[in-house]
Amino acid sequence: MDKPFDNRAWLLVLPAFLIVVFTAVIPLMTVVNYSVQDTFGNNQFFWNGVGWYKELLDPGSELGGRFYASLGRNFIFSAIILALEIPLGIVVALSMPREGWTVAATLVILALPLLIPWNVVGTIWQIFGRSDIGLLGAALNAIGINYNYVSNPFDAWATIIVMDVWHWTSLVALLCYAGLKSIPDAYYQAARIDGASRWAVFRAIQLPKMSRVLLIAVLLRFMDSFMIYTEPFVVTGGGPGNSTTFVSIEVVKIALGQFDLGKAAALSLVYNLIVLIVCWVFYTVMTGQRAEPGHRAEGGAA
Description:
With about 300 residues, the protein is mostly helical. It has a single domain (about 30-285), classed as MetI-like (MetI-like fold, Orthogonal Bundle). Helices cover about 75% and strands about 0% of the residues. The chain is globular and about 75 Å long. About 25% of the residues are buried.
């Protein structure tokens, strides 16, 4: 006799669900409400409909120009971060020890940058890169490299990129290391019997087995790098000029600097929608590529 279906376990999830509703859905609805209204202060709002969205999506408008320029910087930054951190994280994971006391020591060292709060990371690199008292800035200027992230856009970008790579490559390495540890020794034994090269082992065994964790790493790093705010705001404040002004910084400038809550709300909603769409594309493409060999195998068997 089949056991009766009991769904009382959902009661355990209910408190967490209510907390999510209170902390996420209600503020989101507030932002949606702001995005279709305008205000002149004194907590007085006037209906504006989709006016802010039309202005936001128009490249010829002041708001649209700022949005598209900052959005382009976000995509460039995320592309550079993924191109650097994913391969570097794989290399670090492959170089990590597999047994002995050095495993724990390596894991602790790699985890240290991840424990530092984002604003502290920005403060560290702000001081580290200063040309007068910073170790990096003073050293580069001492050897004849004119480095100044405050006035040079290239130096500002290089500083933010290196800072992010230093901060988050450990996450990719730890995820890849977890994927490598899950590979049974039988695979490596078979590869040694076949005389497979180091590259062949990586391409045929290690990389496919890391595909799931790499998907997680790509999604996490894209979302975090695309929505980056604290570190560049602390280091450069969006400058020099607007060279490091990403969409997140534009939202804060419009909301708090100009007190245009309607524009900022519309911008933030479109911003989050873009993040969701790009993450969905990443997920669909990567899971589709992973499923292709299985489909081909089924077709061959048929």
